[in-house]
Amino acid sequence: MPVPIIIDCDPGHDDALAIMLAAGDPAVDLLAVTTVAGNQTLDKTTLNARRVCTVAGITGVPVAAGCARPLVQALGVADDVHGVSGLDGPRFPEPTVDVVAEHAVDLIHRILNGHPEPVTLVPTAPLTNIALLLTRYPEDASRIREIVLMGGSTERGNRTPAAEFNILTDPEAADIVFRSGVPVTMCGLNVTHQALATPEVVARFEGLGTPLGRVCAELLTFFASTYRTLWGFPHPPLHDPVAVARVIDPGLVRCVDANVVVELRGRYTRGATVVDLHGYGDRPVNARVAVRLETELFWDRMVAAVETLGARTA
Question: Is the Cβ–Cβ distance between 122 and 5 less than 8 Å?
Answer without folding.
Answer: yes
